[in-house]
Amino acid sequence: MRIIYSLNTYPVANNRWNMGNRFDDTIYMTAGSILHTHMWYKDITLYIDPIGYEYLSGLPCRVVKVDFKQDLELWMEPKLYAIENQREPFVHVDTDIFIKQPIEFEFEKVIVERKDIGYYCYEPLIKFFDDYCKNLPLWDSTIPYAWSCGVIGFKDFALRDEFLSFYRILKGILSDHRKEYDAFIDDYRGYLEIALLLEQYNLTSMLKVIGIAPTVLIPGDTIQEQSRYANNLGYTHLLGASKYHPKNIDKIKRLMYIKFADQYKSIQDRLENTIIGSL
Question: Where is 248: in which H helix or E strand?
Answer without folding.
Answer: helix 246-259
